[in-house]
Amino acid sequence: MKKYIIQSLRLTLVLMVLLCVIYPLIVAFAGGFSKGNGGGEKISKNGKVVGYAAIGQSFTKPEYFWGRPSAVGYNAAGSAGSNKGPSNPDYLKEVSSRIDTLLKYNPSLKKADIPADMVTASGSGLDPNISEQGAIIQIKRIAAYRKINEKTVAELVVKNTQGPLLGLFGPSSVNVLKLNLALDELKK
């Protein structure tokens, strides 16, 4: 029995060193080669950090592109989904309300043209991106509110669209914060 206890303690110590010291150091080292050196890609405007590329923010003014809804109010400390399914009446009411809001501010839009990502929250509640279609359906509204040409806004969307990962995986997407900052730069 003593033999097994000693083996268990040795294995525990080896795994503690491996998983609690060596692995975190490797991850931190690898993170140093990413954008933001492991601290996330910070987005700055006039030398001041206005957000992070990987964390969604709330935009509600009609002259800005709206992001994906958040189940956690864009609180990065409480990242989570809503855990409500499509048969939940509260969830259906919430999605219906989001559809009504989109239709109210985008009168030329048809309900069938609204992409799902514009009315449903992501699993984390912090998705910083919307689909390319989600950006395209907002062009008319933004051009009207800002009194600029729709073509100019559409070109901005194209410039800020990221293709699928490695050209193969996932849909094209647009980072809402970066797009809205580029939109503000048009004023200048």
Condensed summary:
With 188 residues, the protein is mainly α. The chain is built from 6 helices and 5 strands; from the N terminus they run H-E-E-H-E-H-H-H-E-E-H.
| Overall geometric form | elongated
* Rg measurement, Å: 22 Å
Say what oligomer this is: single chain
Structural class call reads mainly alpha
Question: Percent of residues in helical segments?
Answer: 40-55%
Strand order of the largest sheet: 3-5-4
Mean pLDDT: 86
Count of individual beta strands: 5
- As for the number of domains, it is 2
Order of helices and strands: HEEHEHHHEEH
Q: What fraction strand?
A: 5-15%
Low-confidence runs of at least 5 consecutive residues: none
Q: Could you tell me how far the N terminus lies from the C terminus, measured between alpha carbons in angstroms?
A: 77 Å
Main sheet makeup: 3 strands, antiparallel
Number of helices: 6
Transmembrane segments: 12-33
Pfam families: KdpC
Keywords: ATP-binding, Cell membrane, Ion transport, Membrane, Nucleotide-binding, Potassium, Potassium transport, Transmembrane, Transmembrane helix, Transport
Subcellular location: Cell membrane
Structural features, described:
The protein starts with a helix and ends with a helix. 44% of the residues lie in helices and 9% in strands. Helix 4 (139-146) packs across helix 5. By secondary structure, it is mainly alpha-helical. It has 2 domains: 1-31; 45-187, no CATH class. The protein contains 6 helices and 5 strands, in the order H-E-E-H-E-H-H-H-E-E-H. The strands form 2 sheets. A 3-stranded antiparallel sheet has the order 3-5-4. Strand 1 (42-45) and strand 2 (48-52) form a beta hairpin.
